[in-house]
């Protein structure tokens, strides 16, 4: 009998059970994170903990899944759309990172936009962290790459992360999702064709990582 995951099982074969048994922590469920969440859930990863502290605003509706629910807490509303998720309505700051137990999770997905917190996460959890750079101000999803953060270019947001890591003498081969496209606006404009593609790229990397686990 066919199920909602039949086509995924056809593609992934016996390894599909790895996705069903995985535990993923998703930090941030905005323009990037909400698409990563949808992709993970549809692909068979249902034990997903989602962390965010924001509520939906009307300006989110150009790029965020679930954003028609203006005024509602993001993680709580997304939990109604993806019932097996565990919502945590929490501001992600450095003290929270230091006190939260990350050990149960196979992967940590970083879709937040706080530079200092991203640097802290990279320092502490780079071995199981998938990190997104800046997805705003761009229109061409074909410019998205996944490379060593110290080889990135044309992304002022990632540049700030890179510089802070250098000051901390972090030199490991840590990869980041980024766009080589030059920013197309000074304001923080955004296009779902790119922000959503960042999220789908993040999901794909997570799926490949989980499938490769022994």
The overall pLDDT, averaged over residues, is: 97
**Spans of 5+ residues with little confidence (pLDDT < 50)?**
none
- Helix percentage range: 25-40%
Helix/strand order: HHEHEHEHEHEEHEH
Per the CATH scheme, the topology name is: Rossmann fold
The main sheet orders its strands as: 3-2-1-4-5-7-6
**CATH homology-level superfamily:** NAD(P)-binding Rossmann-like Domain
Structural class: alpha/beta
Shape: globular
CATH class: Alpha Beta
Total domain count: 1
Strand content: 5-15%
**Separation of the first and last Cα atoms:** 29 Å
CATH architecture annotation: 3-Layer(aba) Sandwich
Q: How would you explain this protein's 3D organization?
A:
- The structure is a single chain.
- The chain is α/β, with parallel strands linked by helices and 214 residues long.
- It has one domain (6-212): Rossmann fold, CATH 3.40.50.720.
- Helix content is 37%, strand content 14%.
- The chain contains 8 helices and 7 strands, in the order ααβαβαβαβαββαβα.
- It has helices at residues 6-12, 16-20, 33-42, 74-81, 94-99, 115-125, 156-167, 192-212, and strands spanning 24-27, 48-52, 86-89, 107-110, 129-132, 144-148, 175-179.
- Strands 3-2-1-4-5-7-6 form a 7-stranded mixed beta sheet, with helices on both faces.
- α6 crosses α7.
- The chain is globular.
- The two termini are 29 Å apart.
- 40% of the residues are buried.
- The mean pLDDT is 97.
